[in-house]
């Protein structure tokens, strides 16, 4: 994280996002627009629960959701060990999951009609073939029938991250060029 990044988020300043920071909200905004919903109104009436507290995804996702005037709750994978994860996640209108635990979120953790953004990416061994494969922190096949929208892994948030890295590289180069010319 760049110095001052989190402080800038909490103060509502424009900051250049890195890694997977703004991608879940960007995907949600695009989905809302395609569904004909006003993102601002949606955030105001929604509870966003972030599972995972990393500096790369979890904490920035909480900051960004607060900045959008949403009600926000943050939990981590330890809530699962105490049997309390579902108490938090089942209330969420939007669930952003970035805990680094394959298949952590199952159908019983998600309320009917929620929106689930899976930022996790984990390599596991497929028991049927013995080959490695990528999975998210959400059990996609179990959760998908219950929810309004869900991002797959691979192919969901990851490609958006690639675009953002390029976008931010170009923005940083432009800023550096402006500073040299000033």
UniProtKB/TrEMBL annotation:
InterPro entries xref list: NAD(P)-bd_dom_sf (IPR036291), THF_DH/CycHdrlase (IPR000672), THF_DH/CycHdrlase_NAD-bd_dom (IPR020631)
Keywords: Amino-acid biosynthesis
Pfam annotation, one family: THF_DHG_CYH_C
Domain Tetrahydrofolate dehydrogenase/cyclohydrolase NAD(P)-binding, first and last residues per copy: 48-175
Coiled coil: none
EC numbers for this chain: 3.5.4.9
Top-level class of the enzyme under EC nomenclature: hydrolase
Name the record gives this protein: methenyltetrahydrofolate cyclohydrolase
Organism expressing this protein natively: Streptomyces dengpaensis
């Amino acid at each position: 994280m760049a110095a001052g990044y989190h402080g800038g988020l909490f103060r509502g300043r424009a900051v250049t996002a890195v890694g997977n920071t703004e991608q879940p909200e960007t995907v949600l905004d695009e989905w809302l627009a395609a569904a004909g919903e006003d993102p601002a109104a949606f955030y105001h009436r929604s509870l966003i629960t972030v599972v995972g507290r990393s500096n790369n995804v979890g904490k920035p996702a909480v900051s960004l959701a607060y900045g959008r005037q949403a009600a926000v709750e943050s939990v981590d994978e330890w809530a699962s060990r105490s049997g309390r994860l579902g108490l938090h996640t089942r209330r969420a209108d939007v669930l952003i999951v970035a805990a680094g635990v394959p298949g952590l979120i199952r159908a019983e953790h998600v309320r009917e009609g929620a929106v689930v953004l899976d930022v996790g990416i984990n390599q596991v061994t497929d028991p049927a073939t013995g080959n490695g494969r990528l999975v998210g922190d959400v059990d996609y096949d179990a959760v998908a029938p219950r929810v309004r929208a869900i991002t797959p892994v691979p192919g969901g948030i990851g490609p958006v991250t690639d675009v953002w890295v390029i976008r931010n590289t170009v923005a940083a180069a432009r800023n550096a060029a402006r500073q040299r010319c000033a």
